[in-house]
Design brief:
Keywords: Hydrolase
InterPro entries: 6-hairpin_glycosidase_sf, 6hp_glycosidase-like_sf, GH15-like, Trehalase-like_N
Oligomer: single chain
Radius of gyration: 25 Å
CATH architecture of the largest domain: Alpha/alpha barrel
Strand order of the largest sheet: 6-7-8-11-17-15-14-13
Strand content: 15-25%
Protein name: Glycoside hydrolase 15-related protein
Pfam families: Glyco_hydro_15 (PF00723), TREH_N (PF19291)
GO molecular function: hydrolase activity, hydrolyzing O-glycosyl compounds
Structural class: alpha+beta
Shape: globular
Length: 600
Protein backbone atom coordinates (compact mmCIF):
# COMPACT_ATOMS: atom_id res chain seq x y z
CA UNK A 1 0.00 0.00 0.00
CA UNK A 2 1.60 3.23 -1.16
CA UNK A 3 -0.81 5.68 0.40
CA UNK A 4 -2.63 6.03 3.69
CA UNK A 5 -5.59 4.22 2.13
CA UNK A 6 -7.44 3.64 5.37
CA UNK A 7 -10.91 4.31 6.63
CA UNK A 8 -11.53 5.31 10.22
CA UNK A 9 -14.29 3.91 12.40
CA UNK A 10 -14.91 4.92 15.99
CA UNK A 11 -17.39 5.77 18.71
CA UNK A 12 -15.85 8.78 20.52
CA UNK A 13 -14.12 6.41 22.93
CA UNK A 14 -11.57 4.88 20.60
CA UNK A 15 -11.04 4.29 16.89
CA UNK A 16 -9.65 1.82 14.38
CA UNK A 17 -8.07 2.15 10.94
CA UNK A 18 -9.11 -0.31 8.25
CA UNK A 19 -7.16 -0.75 5.02
CA UNK A 20 -8.83 -0.64 1.62
CA UNK A 21 -8.53 -4.44 1.59
CA UNK A 22 -10.52 -4.74 4.80
CA UNK A 23 -7.70 -5.30 7.32
CA UNK A 24 -7.81 -3.66 10.75
CA UNK A 25 -4.22 -2.40 11.00
CA UNK A 26 -4.48 0.05 13.89
CA UNK A 27 -6.60 0.04 17.02
CA UNK A 28 -6.05 0.95 20.65
CA UNK A 29 -8.42 -0.28 23.34
CA UNK A 30 -10.14 0.59 25.53
CA UNK A 31 -9.40 4.26 24.68
CA UNK A 32 -7.68 6.31 21.98
CA UNK A 33 -4.46 6.63 23.97
CA UNK A 34 -4.33 3.05 25.25
CA UNK A 35 -1.64 0.71 23.97
CA UNK A 36 -2.34 -0.83 20.58
CA UNK A 37 -4.03 -4.15 19.98
CA UNK A 38 -3.44 -4.02 16.22
CA UNK A 39 -0.46 -2.03 14.91
CA UNK A 40 0.44 -3.50 11.52
CA UNK A 41 0.55 0.09 10.24
CA UNK A 42 3.66 0.59 12.42
CA UNK A 43 5.26 -2.80 11.82
CA UNK A 44 3.90 -5.11 9.14
CA UNK A 45 5.56 -8.18 10.71
CA UNK A 46 5.15 -7.63 14.45
CA UNK A 47 2.30 -5.16 14.83
CA UNK A 48 -0.73 -7.44 14.53
CA UNK A 49 -3.89 -7.18 12.41
CA UNK A 50 -7.38 -8.57 11.83
CA UNK A 51 -7.79 -9.33 8.13
CA UNK A 52 -10.48 -10.73 5.84
CA UNK A 53 -8.63 -12.55 3.05
CA UNK A 54 -10.10 -13.58 -0.31
CA UNK A 55 -8.70 -15.16 -3.46
CA UNK A 56 -7.07 -12.86 -6.00
CA UNK A 57 -10.08 -13.07 -8.33
CA UNK A 58 -12.15 -10.99 -5.89
CA UNK A 59 -12.38 -7.29 -6.59
CA UNK A 60 -12.45 -5.19 -3.41
CA UNK A 61 -14.12 -1.77 -3.14
CA UNK A 62 -14.79 0.42 -0.12
CA UNK A 63 -17.13 3.22 0.88
CA UNK A 64 -18.90 4.67 3.87
CA UNK A 65 -22.65 4.35 4.21
CA UNK A 66 -23.58 7.92 3.32
CA UNK A 67 -23.55 10.36 6.26
CA UNK A 68 -22.35 7.70 8.72
CA UNK A 69 -19.12 6.29 10.15
CA UNK A 70 -20.02 2.73 9.05
CA UNK A 71 -17.39 1.49 6.60
CA UNK A 72 -18.42 -1.02 3.94
CA UNK A 73 -15.82 -3.19 2.19
CA UNK A 74 -17.33 -5.16 -0.72
CA UNK A 75 -15.76 -8.35 -2.08
CA UNK A 76 -16.95 -9.68 -5.46
CA UNK A 77 -15.73 -12.06 -8.15
CA UNK A 78 -18.85 -11.54 -10.26
CA UNK A 79 -21.12 -14.25 -8.85
CA UNK A 80 -19.91 -14.51 -5.27
CA UNK A 81 -20.43 -11.28 -3.36
CA UNK A 82 -20.33 -10.26 0.30
CA UNK A 83 -19.79 -7.14 2.37
CA UNK A 84 -17.96 -6.43 5.60
CA UNK A 85 -19.59 -3.59 7.52
CA UNK A 86 -17.16 -2.27 10.13
CA UNK A 87 -18.22 0.03 12.93
CA UNK A 88 -17.85 0.74 16.62
CA UNK A 89 -21.26 0.91 18.32
CA UNK A 90 -22.54 4.32 19.37
CA UNK A 91 -26.12 5.29 20.06
CA UNK A 92 -28.30 7.03 22.61
CA UNK A 93 -29.87 5.11 25.49
CA UNK A 94 -33.25 5.86 27.05
CA UNK A 95 -31.64 7.73 29.96
CA UNK A 96 -29.95 10.12 27.49
CA UNK A 97 -26.45 8.68 27.87
CA UNK A 98 -24.53 7.12 24.98
CA UNK A 99 -23.65 3.48 24.58
CA UNK A 100 -20.12 3.33 23.18
CA UNK A 101 -18.34 0.17 24.36
CA UNK A 102 -14.64 -0.49 23.61
CA UNK A 103 -15.42 -2.90 20.78
CA UNK A 104 -15.34 -3.27 17.01
CA UNK A 105 -18.10 -5.05 15.11
CA UNK A 106 -17.45 -6.63 11.72
CA UNK A 107 -20.86 -7.53 10.28
CA UNK A 108 -20.55 -9.79 7.23
CA UNK A 109 -23.50 -9.36 4.89
CA UNK A 110 -24.17 -12.18 2.44
CA UNK A 111 -25.14 -10.84 -1.02
CA UNK A 112 -25.00 -13.69 -3.58
CA UNK A 113 -23.33 -16.90 -4.76
CA UNK A 114 -20.97 -18.93 -2.59
CA UNK A 115 -18.36 -16.45 -1.38
CA UNK A 116 -15.42 -17.78 0.60
CA UNK A 117 -12.84 -16.06 2.75
CA UNK A 118 -10.16 -16.72 5.33
CA UNK A 119 -9.45 -14.82 8.53
CA UNK A 120 -6.04 -13.66 9.72
CA UNK A 121 -6.72 -12.88 13.37
CA UNK A 122 -3.52 -11.77 15.01
CA UNK A 123 -3.92 -9.36 17.95
CA UNK A 124 -0.66 -8.12 19.49
CA UNK A 125 -1.38 -6.53 22.83
CA UNK A 126 0.61 -3.74 24.50
CA UNK A 127 2.18 -2.41 21.28
CA UNK A 128 3.35 -5.99 20.47
CA UNK A 129 5.97 -5.60 23.20
CA UNK A 130 5.73 -9.27 24.26
CA UNK A 131 4.02 -12.48 23.16
CA UNK A 132 0.25 -12.55 22.82
CA UNK A 133 -1.33 -16.01 23.17
CA UNK A 134 -4.74 -16.84 21.70
CA UNK A 135 -7.08 -19.52 23.13
CA UNK A 136 -10.43 -20.89 22.01
CA UNK A 137 -13.01 -20.99 24.79
CA UNK A 138 -16.61 -22.25 24.75
CA UNK A 139 -18.24 -18.89 24.00
CA UNK A 140 -15.38 -16.80 22.62
CA UNK A 141 -11.76 -16.56 21.53
CA UNK A 142 -9.49 -14.81 24.03
CA UNK A 143 -6.03 -13.36 23.54
CA UNK A 144 -3.76 -12.30 26.38
CA UNK A 145 -0.26 -11.19 27.20
CA UNK A 146 1.73 -11.68 30.41
CA UNK A 147 4.56 -9.29 29.44
CA UNK A 148 5.36 -6.13 31.38
CA UNK A 149 1.61 -5.71 31.78
CA UNK A 150 -1.25 -8.19 31.76
CA UNK A 151 -3.86 -7.47 29.10
CA UNK A 152 -6.60 -9.42 27.38
CA UNK A 153 -9.17 -9.07 24.56
CA UNK A 154 -12.13 -11.13 23.41
CA UNK A 155 -13.51 -12.17 20.02
CA UNK A 156 -17.08 -13.40 19.60
CA UNK A 157 -18.21 -14.78 16.25
CA UNK A 158 -21.01 -16.66 14.50
CA UNK A 159 -18.40 -18.60 12.51
CA UNK A 160 -16.52 -21.74 13.49
CA UNK A 161 -13.94 -20.56 16.02
CA UNK A 162 -11.35 -23.20 15.08
CA UNK A 163 -11.52 -22.20 11.41
CA UNK A 164 -11.18 -18.55 12.34
CA UNK A 165 -8.08 -19.04 14.50
CA UNK A 166 -6.39 -21.51 12.13
CA UNK A 167 -7.10 -19.36 9.06
CA UNK A 168 -9.00 -22.09 7.23
CA UNK A 169 -11.45 -21.24 4.46
CA UNK A 170 -14.98 -20.25 5.48
CA UNK A 171 -17.95 -20.28 3.10
CA UNK A 172 -20.48 -17.52 3.71
CA UNK A 173 -24.06 -18.72 3.24
CA UNK A 174 -25.85 -16.18 5.43
CA UNK A 175 -25.07 -13.03 7.39
CA UNK A 176 -22.51 -13.44 10.16
CA UNK A 177 -20.38 -11.35 12.51
CA UNK A 178 -17.20 -10.81 14.48
CA UNK A 179 -17.44 -8.80 17.69
CA UNK A 180 -14.00 -7.87 18.96
CA UNK A 181 -13.88 -6.18 22.34
CA UNK A 182 -11.83 -5.27 25.38
CA UNK A 183 -14.33 -6.75 27.84
CA UNK A 184 -15.98 -10.14 28.19
CA UNK A 185 -19.68 -9.83 27.33
CA UNK A 186 -22.31 -10.44 30.00
CA UNK A 187 -24.84 -11.58 27.38
CA UNK A 188 -23.67 -13.56 24.38
CA UNK A 189 -24.08 -11.72 21.06
CA UNK A 190 -26.03 -13.12 18.10
CA UNK A 191 -26.38 -12.18 14.43
CA UNK A 192 -29.72 -10.58 15.22
CA UNK A 193 -28.33 -8.52 18.14
CA UNK A 194 -25.29 -7.41 16.15
CA UNK A 195 -27.49 -6.39 13.20
CA UNK A 196 -29.53 -4.29 15.63
CA UNK A 197 -26.31 -2.65 16.90
CA UNK A 198 -25.49 -1.73 13.31
CA UNK A 199 -28.93 -0.20 12.70
CA UNK A 200 -28.85 1.77 15.95
CA UNK A 201 -25.36 3.08 15.14
CA UNK A 202 -26.48 3.99 11.62
CA UNK A 203 -29.46 5.95 12.98
CA UNK A 204 -27.18 7.77 15.43
CA UNK A 205 -24.88 8.96 12.65
CA UNK A 206 -27.76 9.89 10.31
CA UNK A 207 -29.30 11.99 13.08
CA UNK A 208 -25.93 13.57 13.85
CA UNK A 209 -25.29 14.41 10.19
CA UNK A 210 -28.83 15.72 9.86
CA UNK A 211 -27.96 18.66 12.12
CA UNK A 212 -25.40 19.96 9.63
CA UNK A 213 -26.88 22.68 7.39
CA UNK A 214 -27.00 22.10 3.64
CA UNK A 215 -24.66 24.33 1.66
CA UNK A 216 -24.51 25.37 -1.99
CA UNK A 217 -21.21 23.58 -2.56
CA UNK A 218 -19.14 20.66 -1.22
CA UNK A 219 -21.81 19.10 1.03
CA UNK A 220 -20.29 15.62 0.69
CA UNK A 221 -16.81 16.83 1.67
CA UNK A 222 -18.13 18.95 4.55
CA UNK A 223 -20.10 15.99 5.92
CA UNK A 224 -17.24 13.49 5.70
CA UNK A 225 -14.82 15.94 7.31
CA UNK A 226 -17.35 16.73 10.06
CA UNK A 227 -17.86 13.04 10.89
CA UNK A 228 -14.08 12.59 10.95
CA UNK A 229 -13.75 15.45 13.43
CA UNK A 230 -16.50 13.95 15.57
CA UNK A 231 -14.67 10.60 15.53
CA UNK A 232 -11.66 12.40 17.02
CA UNK A 233 -13.60 13.68 20.04
CA UNK A 234 -13.37 11.86 23.36
CA UNK A 235 -16.84 11.64 24.86
CA UNK A 236 -15.78 11.07 28.46
CA UNK A 237 -14.11 14.47 28.87
CA UNK A 238 -14.91 16.54 25.78
CA UNK A 239 -11.26 16.53 24.61
CA UNK A 240 -10.47 16.59 20.88
CA UNK A 241 -7.54 14.61 19.50
CA UNK A 242 -5.15 15.92 16.86
CA UNK A 243 -5.20 12.51 15.12
CA UNK A 244 -5.94 8.85 15.84
CA UNK A 245 -2.37 7.59 15.36
CA UNK A 246 1.20 7.86 16.54
CA UNK A 247 4.46 8.01 14.58
CA UNK A 248 3.18 8.09 11.02
CA UNK A 249 6.12 10.02 9.52
CA UNK A 250 5.99 13.46 7.92
CA UNK A 251 8.60 12.11 5.48
CA UNK A 252 9.27 8.41 4.82
CA UNK A 253 12.51 7.25 6.44
CA UNK A 254 13.00 10.38 8.53
CA UNK A 255 12.55 10.93 12.26
CA UNK A 256 9.68 13.47 12.35
CA UNK A 257 7.40 10.89 13.94
CA UNK A 258 5.16 12.05 16.78
CA UNK A 259 2.30 10.78 18.91
CA UNK A 260 -0.83 12.80 18.07
CA UNK A 261 -3.36 11.02 20.29
CA UNK A 262 -3.58 14.02 22.59
CA UNK A 263 -5.51 17.25 22.85
CA UNK A 264 -3.64 20.29 21.55
CA UNK A 265 -5.38 23.42 22.74
CA UNK A 266 -4.70 25.07 19.38
CA UNK A 267 -6.07 22.30 17.15
CA UNK A 268 -8.99 21.47 19.38
CA UNK A 269 -10.08 25.09 19.73
CA UNK A 270 -10.20 25.50 15.96
CA UNK A 271 -12.22 22.31 15.69
CA UNK A 272 -14.74 23.61 18.20
CA UNK A 273 -15.13 26.87 16.28
CA UNK A 274 -15.94 25.00 13.09
CA UNK A 275 -18.21 22.46 14.81
CA UNK A 276 -20.21 25.32 16.33
CA UNK A 277 -20.72 26.78 12.86
CA UNK A 278 -21.97 23.39 11.73
CA UNK A 279 -24.64 23.36 14.44
CA UNK A 280 -23.02 20.92 16.88
CA UNK A 281 -22.95 23.17 19.93
CA UNK A 282 -22.78 20.33 22.47
CA UNK A 283 -19.28 19.46 21.23
CA UNK A 284 -18.28 23.09 21.78
CA UNK A 285 -19.78 23.34 25.23
CA UNK A 286 -18.23 20.09 26.44
CA UNK A 287 -14.80 21.12 25.18
CA UNK A 288 -15.08 24.44 26.97
CA UNK A 289 -15.86 22.53 30.15
CA UNK A 290 -12.77 20.38 29.51
CA UNK A 291 -10.68 23.58 29.41
CA UNK A 292 -12.30 25.02 32.54
CA UNK A 293 -11.53 21.80 34.38
CA UNK A 294 -7.86 22.14 33.38
CA UNK A 295 -7.45 25.55 35.02
CA UNK A 296 -8.04 25.17 38.76
CA UNK A 297 -5.69 27.97 39.87
CA UNK A 298 -5.86 31.57 38.70
CA UNK A 299 -2.15 31.83 38.03
CA UNK A 300 -1.73 28.41 36.43
CA UNK A 301 -0.34 28.53 32.93
CA UNK A 302 -1.99 26.59 30.15
CA UNK A 303 0.07 23.84 28.57
CA UNK A 304 -0.02 23.59 24.79
CA UNK A 305 -1.46 20.08 25.05
CA UNK A 306 -2.99 17.62 27.47
CA UNK A 307 -3.92 13.98 27.65
CA UNK A 308 -7.50 13.18 26.70
CA UNK A 309 -8.39 12.80 30.38
CA UNK A 310 -6.65 16.07 31.22
CA UNK A 311 -3.27 14.50 32.05
CA UNK A 312 -0.52 17.09 32.28
CA UNK A 313 2.51 14.79 31.97
CA UNK A 314 2.84 13.11 28.57
CA UNK A 315 6.26 11.54 28.95
CA UNK A 316 7.75 10.62 25.57
CA UNK A 317 9.38 7.23 25.02
CA UNK A 318 10.39 5.20 21.98
CA UNK A 319 9.28 1.68 21.14
CA UNK A 320 12.54 0.28 19.80
CA UNK A 321 11.05 -3.13 18.93
CA UNK A 322 8.76 -1.69 16.22
CA UNK A 323 10.18 -0.97 12.75
CA UNK A 324 7.91 2.02 12.12
CA UNK A 325 5.69 2.91 9.17
CA UNK A 326 7.61 1.76 6.09
CA UNK A 327 10.75 1.57 8.22
CA UNK A 328 10.46 5.11 9.60
CA UNK A 329 11.89 4.98 13.10
CA UNK A 330 11.55 5.82 15.90
CA UNK A 331 8.03 4.89 16.99
CA UNK A 332 7.14 7.28 19.80
CA UNK A 333 4.43 7.20 22.45
CA UNK A 334 3.85 10.26 24.58
CA UNK A 335 4.97 13.69 23.40
CA UNK A 336 7.68 15.83 24.95
CA UNK A 337 6.20 18.94 23.33
CA UNK A 338 3.83 19.22 26.32
CA UNK A 339 6.67 21.02 28.14
CA UNK A 340 7.04 23.66 25.45
CA UNK A 341 6.09 27.28 25.84
CA UNK A 342 3.84 28.53 23.04
CA UNK A 343 2.30 31.93 23.60
CA UNK A 344 -0.27 31.57 20.82
CA UNK A 345 -2.55 29.22 22.77
CA UNK A 346 -3.97 32.04 24.89
CA UNK A 347 -5.25 33.90 21.85
CA UNK A 348 -6.79 30.78 20.39
CA UNK A 349 -8.53 29.94 23.65
CA UNK A 350 -9.82 33.50 24.08
CA UNK A 351 -11.10 33.48 20.50
CA UNK A 352 -13.12 30.34 21.22
CA UNK A 353 -14.49 31.71 24.50
CA UNK A 354 -15.60 34.86 22.69
CA UNK A 355 -17.16 32.90 19.81
CA UNK A 356 -19.14 30.73 22.20
CA UNK A 357 -20.40 33.71 24.20
CA UNK A 358 -21.60 35.34 20.99
CA UNK A 359 -23.28 32.20 19.68
CA UNK A 360 -24.63 30.74 22.91
CA UNK A 361 -24.85 33.74 25.24
CA UNK A 362 -28.32 32.79 26.46
CA UNK A 363 -27.60 29.19 27.35
CA UNK A 364 -23.88 29.02 28.07
CA UNK A 365 -23.17 27.95 31.62
CA UNK A 366 -20.03 28.80 33.59
CA UNK A 367 -20.07 32.51 32.71
CA UNK A 368 -18.25 33.39 35.92
CA UNK A 369 -15.66 30.71 35.28
CA UNK A 370 -15.09 32.08 31.77
CA UNK A 371 -14.72 35.63 33.04
CA UNK A 372 -12.19 34.37 35.57
CA UNK A 373 -10.26 32.57 32.85
CA UNK A 374 -10.40 35.69 30.67
CA UNK A 375 -8.83 37.85 33.40
CA UNK A 376 -6.21 35.17 34.05
CA UNK A 377 -5.28 34.99 30.36
CA UNK A 378 -4.91 38.78 30.13
CA UNK A 379 -2.66 38.73 33.19
CA UNK A 380 -0.46 35.99 31.71
CA UNK A 381 -0.27 37.63 28.25
CA UNK A 382 0.53 41.02 29.77
CA UNK A 383 3.35 39.41 31.72
CA UNK A 384 4.80 37.23 28.94
CA UNK A 385 3.93 38.57 25.45
CA UNK A 386 7.37 40.16 25.00
CA UNK A 387 9.10 36.82 25.55
CA UNK A 388 10.27 34.45 22.83
CA UNK A 389 8.72 30.98 22.52
CA UNK A 390 8.75 27.72 20.46
CA UNK A 391 6.04 28.86 18.05
CA UNK A 392 3.17 27.05 16.35
CA UNK A 393 5.51 24.51 14.70
CA UNK A 394 7.11 23.47 17.99
CA UNK A 395 10.75 24.12 17.13
CA UNK A 396 12.74 22.18 19.68
CA UNK A 397 15.83 24.40 19.46
CA UNK A 398 16.10 28.04 20.60
CA UNK A 399 13.11 30.26 21.32
CA UNK A 400 12.29 33.07 18.89
CA UNK A 401 9.88 35.99 18.61
CA UNK A 402 7.49 34.24 16.21
CA UNK A 403 5.06 36.51 14.38
CA UNK A 404 2.17 34.07 14.76
CA UNK A 405 2.66 33.88 18.52
CA UNK A 406 2.69 37.69 18.80
CA UNK A 407 -0.44 38.01 16.65
CA UNK A 408 -2.23 35.51 18.86
CA UNK A 409 -1.17 37.47 21.97
CA UNK A 410 -2.93 40.42 20.31
CA UNK A 411 -5.96 38.19 19.62
CA UNK A 412 -6.09 37.23 23.31
CA UNK A 413 -6.38 40.87 24.40
CA UNK A 414 -8.68 41.89 21.54
CA UNK A 415 -11.13 39.08 22.40
CA UNK A 416 -10.80 39.74 26.13
CA UNK A 417 -11.94 43.33 25.49
CA UNK A 418 -14.93 42.02 23.52
CA UNK A 419 -15.75 39.58 26.34
CA UNK A 420 -15.52 42.45 28.86
CA UNK A 421 -18.12 44.32 26.80
CA UNK A 422 -20.43 41.28 26.82
CA UNK A 423 -20.16 41.04 30.62
CA UNK A 424 -20.40 44.84 31.03
CA UNK A 425 -16.99 45.00 32.76
CA UNK A 426 -16.18 48.48 31.43
CA UNK A 427 -13.52 49.18 34.06
CA UNK A 428 -11.19 46.67 32.36
CA UNK A 429 -11.59 47.94 28.80
CA UNK A 430 -9.41 51.07 28.94
CA UNK A 431 -6.47 49.29 30.55
CA UNK A 432 -6.70 46.30 28.21
CA UNK A 433 -7.04 48.55 25.14
CA UNK A 434 -3.66 50.15 25.89
CA UNK A 435 -2.11 46.67 26.02
CA UNK A 436 -3.83 45.59 22.79
CA UNK A 437 -2.53 48.67 20.96
CA UNK A 438 1.01 48.18 22.29
CA UNK A 439 1.14 44.58 21.01
CA UNK A 440 -0.25 45.58 17.60
CA UNK A 441 2.29 48.40 17.24
CA UNK A 442 5.12 46.01 18.17
CA UNK A 443 4.04 43.47 15.50
CA UNK A 444 3.63 46.03 12.73
CA UNK A 445 7.07 47.47 13.48
CA UNK A 446 9.01 44.21 13.93
CA UNK A 447 7.30 41.47 11.90
CA UNK A 448 7.26 43.33 8.57
CA UNK A 449 10.37 42.96 6.42
CA UNK A 450 10.86 45.52 3.62
CA UNK A 451 13.49 43.32 1.96
CA UNK A 452 11.05 40.45 1.28
CA UNK A 453 7.97 42.72 1.21
CA UNK A 454 6.07 40.50 3.65
CA UNK A 455 5.39 39.68 7.27
CA UNK A 456 7.98 37.05 8.12
CA UNK A 457 8.25 34.00 10.39
CA UNK A 458 9.83 35.85 13.30
CA UNK A 459 11.13 39.27 14.23
CA UNK A 460 14.23 40.20 12.23
CA UNK A 461 13.91 37.14 9.98
CA UNK A 462 13.78 36.96 6.20
CA UNK A 463 12.05 33.56 6.27
CA UNK A 464 8.44 33.25 5.21
CA UNK A 465 5.97 31.13 7.15
CA UNK A 466 2.45 29.95 6.21
CA UNK A 467 1.16 30.64 9.73
CA UNK A 468 1.26 34.42 9.15
CA UNK A 469 -1.59 33.94 6.67
CA UNK A 470 -3.84 33.62 9.73
CA UNK A 471 -3.26 37.29 10.60
CA UNK A 472 -6.28 38.10 8.45
CA UNK A 473 -8.63 35.36 9.62
CA UNK A 474 -8.03 36.35 13.26
CA UNK A 475 -8.88 39.96 12.44
CA UNK A 476 -5.44 41.49 12.94
CA UNK A 477 -5.31 42.93 9.41
CA UNK A 478 -7.82 43.42 6.60
CA UNK A 479 -7.64 41.06 3.62
CA UNK A 480 -7.25 43.94 1.17
CA UNK A 481 -4.54 45.71 3.19
CA UNK A 482 -1.53 46.13 0.86
CA UNK A 483 0.84 44.49 3.34
CA UNK A 484 -1.36 41.40 3.67
CA UNK A 485 -1.83 41.11 -0.09
CA UNK A 486 1.95 41.43 -0.51
CA UNK A 487 2.50 38.72 2.11
CA UNK A 488 0.14 36.31 0.34
CA UNK A 489 1.97 36.95 -2.96
CA UNK A 490 5.38 36.48 -1.35
CA UNK A 491 4.26 33.19 0.23
CA UNK A 492 2.88 32.02 -3.11
CA UNK A 493 6.20 32.78 -4.81
CA UNK A 494 8.38 31.32 -2.06
CA UNK A 495 6.48 28.51 -0.33
CA UNK A 496 4.07 27.23 -3.00
CA UNK A 497 5.16 24.14 -4.93
CA UNK A 498 2.71 22.87 -7.57
CA UNK A 499 -0.23 24.20 -5.57
CA UNK A 500 1.02 22.72 -2.27
CA UNK A 501 2.58 24.73 0.54
CA UNK A 502 5.65 24.34 2.68
CA UNK A 503 5.09 25.44 6.27
CA UNK A 504 8.45 27.20 5.95
CA UNK A 505 11.66 26.54 4.04
CA UNK A 506 14.30 27.30 6.67
CA UNK A 507 16.03 24.46 8.49
CA UNK A 508 14.49 23.29 11.73
CA UNK A 509 15.76 20.82 14.33
CA UNK A 510 15.65 17.96 11.81
CA UNK A 511 16.83 19.68 8.62
CA UNK A 512 14.79 21.06 5.74
CA UNK A 513 11.07 20.15 5.53
CA UNK A 514 10.36 17.97 2.48
CA UNK A 515 6.58 17.52 2.57
CA UNK A 516 3.61 19.86 2.40
CA UNK A 517 1.65 20.53 5.58
CA UNK A 518 -1.93 20.08 4.38
CA UNK A 519 -3.51 22.72 6.58
CA UNK A 520 -1.08 25.34 5.24
CA UNK A 521 -2.33 24.76 1.70
CA UNK A 522 -5.90 25.27 2.92
CA UNK A 523 -4.82 28.49 4.70
CA UNK A 524 -3.20 29.67 1.48
CA UNK A 525 -6.32 28.88 -0.54
CA UNK A 526 -8.42 30.80 1.98
CA UNK A 527 -6.06 33.78 1.77
CA UNK A 528 -6.15 33.82 -2.03
CA UNK A 529 -9.94 33.78 -1.84
CA UNK A 530 -9.97 36.66 0.66
CA UNK A 531 -7.66 38.92 -1.39
CA UNK A 532 -9.92 38.48 -4.41
CA UNK A 533 -8.19 35.71 -6.37
CA UNK A 534 -11.24 33.49 -6.09
CA UNK A 535 -10.89 31.57 -9.34
CA UNK A 536 -7.31 30.56 -8.57
CA UNK A 537 -8.30 29.65 -4.98
CA UNK A 538 -11.10 27.40 -6.20
CA UNK A 539 -8.76 25.72 -8.69
CA UNK A 540 -6.19 24.97 -5.97
CA UNK A 541 -8.94 23.75 -3.63
CA UNK A 542 -10.41 21.29 -6.12
CA UNK A 543 -6.93 20.03 -6.92
CA UNK A 544 -6.12 19.52 -3.24
CA UNK A 545 -9.37 17.61 -2.68
CA UNK A 546 -8.11 15.21 -5.34
CA UNK A 547 -5.15 14.31 -3.09
CA UNK A 548 -7.38 12.87 -0.35
CA UNK A 549 -7.54 9.10 -0.10
CA UNK A 550 -10.28 6.97 -1.66
CA UNK A 551 -12.66 7.85 1.19
CA UNK A 552 -12.04 11.61 1.20
CA UNK A 553 -9.75 11.52 4.25
CA UNK A 554 -6.60 13.59 4.82
CA UNK A 555 -3.54 13.09 6.97
CA UNK A 556 -1.19 15.82 8.17
CA UNK A 557 1.06 16.07 5.09
CA UNK A 558 1.20 15.52 1.33
CA UNK A 559 4.39 14.53 -0.49
CA UNK A 560 5.28 17.20 -3.06
CA UNK A 561 6.35 14.74 -5.76
CA UNK A 562 4.12 11.68 -5.40
CA UNK A 563 1.13 13.44 -3.77
CA UNK A 564 0.86 10.55 -1.32
CA UNK A 565 -0.50 11.24 2.15
CA UNK A 566 2.00 11.37 5.02
CA UNK A 567 1.91 12.07 8.74
CA UNK A 568 -0.62 11.13 11.40
CA UNK A 569 -4.06 10.16 10.20
CA UNK A 570 -6.77 11.26 9.94
CA UNK A 571 -5.76 14.76 10.95
CA UNK A 572 -8.31 17.01 12.65
CA UNK A 573 -6.40 20.14 11.64
CA UNK A 574 -6.59 19.25 7.93
CA UNK A 575 -10.30 18.48 7.97
CA UNK A 576 -11.33 21.58 9.87
CA UNK A 577 -9.41 23.77 7.39
CA UNK A 578 -11.10 21.93 4.51
CA UNK A 579 -14.49 22.77 6.03
CA UNK A 580 -13.52 26.44 6.50
CA UNK A 581 -12.54 26.75 2.83
CA UNK A 582 -15.67 24.93 1.65
CA UNK A 583 -17.90 27.19 3.75
CA UNK A 584 -16.25 30.30 2.27
CA UNK A 585 -16.72 29.08 -1.30
CA UNK A 586 -20.29 28.05 -0.54
CA UNK A 587 -21.14 31.41 1.04
CA UNK A 588 -19.78 33.19 -2.05
CA UNK A 589 -21.89 30.97 -4.31
CA UNK A 590 -24.94 31.68 -2.15
CA UNK A 591 -24.34 35.46 -2.30
CA UNK A 592 -23.98 35.34 -6.09
CA UNK A 593 -27.23 33.40 -6.46
CA UNK A 594 -29.04 35.97 -4.31
CA UNK A 595 -27.67 38.77 -6.50
CA UNK A 596 -28.73 36.92 -9.65
CA UNK A 597 -32.28 36.45 -8.34
CA UNK A 598 -32.45 40.17 -7.45
CA UNK A 599 -31.41 41.11 -11.00
CA UNK A 600 -34.13 38.88 -12.39
Amino acid sequence: MDNLDYGIIGNCRSAALISKNGAIEWSCLPAFDSSSVFAKILDKNKGGSFEILTNSDYKITQNYISQTAILVTTYTNGNDIFEVRDFMPRYKLEDGSYYSPPEIIRYLRYVSGKPTFKVLYNPKLEYASSDTKTYIKKDFITSLTHGEKFDTVFLYTSFNKERVVSGNEIELTEDGYFLFGYNEKIFSPSVKKVYLEQQRTKVYWLNWSGKIPKYHLYNTEINRSSITLKLLTYDKTGAVLAAATTSLPETIGEVRNWDYRFCWIRDASMVIKVMSELGHKNVAKRYLQFIINLIPDKDEKLQIMYGINGEKELTEETLEHLDGYKGSKPVRVGNAAYKQKQNDIYGILMDVIYEQLVKFSTDLENGEDLWGITKGIVWIVDKHWKEADKGIWEFRAEDRHFTFSKVLCWVAIDRAIKVARIFNKSHKIEKWTRLEQAIKKDILENAWNDEVNAFTQSYGSTYLDASVLLMESYGFIHAKHPKFVATVKAIENNLCNDGLLYRYKNEDDFGLPSSSFTICTFWFINSLFKIGEEEKARMYFDRLLGYSNHLGLFSEDVDFKTKRLLGNFPQAYSHLALIECALNFSAKESDEKVLESMRE
